[in-house]
Amino acid sequence: MPDSETCIKYTLFIFNFFFVITGIIILSVGLTVQGIYHGYSEFLSSQFLSLPVFLIVIGSIIFFVAFFGCYGAWRSNYCMILTFCGLLTIIFILELAAGITGYILKNSTSSLITDTLQPTMKDYINNEKPHISVAWDDIQSRFGCCGLQNYQDWVTEIKGIPLSCCEIPHGILNSFTCSNETTTLHEIGCVASFGSFVQEHARSLALAGIILAIVQLFGLLFACMVARRIKYHRIAGY
After folding, report:
1. What's the Cα-to-Cα distance from 23 to each of 15, 51, 122, 177, 222, rounded to whole Å?
2. pLDDT digits (tens, 9 = 90+) for 66-100
3. How far apart are CA 150 and CA 166, in angstroms?
């Protein structure tokens, strides 16, 4: 076998190794954000929840696609390398779409969070949906926020302010009341505080999608070059 074809073969093997690495990165980012978002699924738009799942699927597909590249290079099979190029093109488009979607969601976070949080406020004191109360308390305690914009949202909806809107001081023996006069009342709204948290992860998904799409674009160009070289060798008869 000519040295040039051997060089092409092993170079493509190395590329597929890094290709699998990008798949692992995409899979890891998708799984991490999916795990984070899962605890707040009641308050997140389906668009936020579907994006990490989308990246998980892409990351899984990459392992399957890498097989075509490795096997095609080993067998110097023009058809398999060409199939590999086609699949790489699809993955590139999907990753680019995921990245663009992530940036769109990042810029629409405030309105989407408001649309999902507001309908659940009246369910806060509804015994039929205790998970809503738990989720609201968790968000307000963890992110140091209260209501959508401020405590007045709760006064309007349920005629009171949840205890989770205030930082409860240590050493309280008896009852504690959270009101607009409480010094530890969280002043920031959850649309801003919780929204920033969601926005940051949407940005991570967007960056992962776009950066890896650019990396794989170079891989796609290289794979096309390999396919041409293999075809040339076959036509030349060596």
Report:
1. 12, 16, 43, 51, 18
2. 777 777 666 666 777 777 788 888 888 888 888 88
3. 12
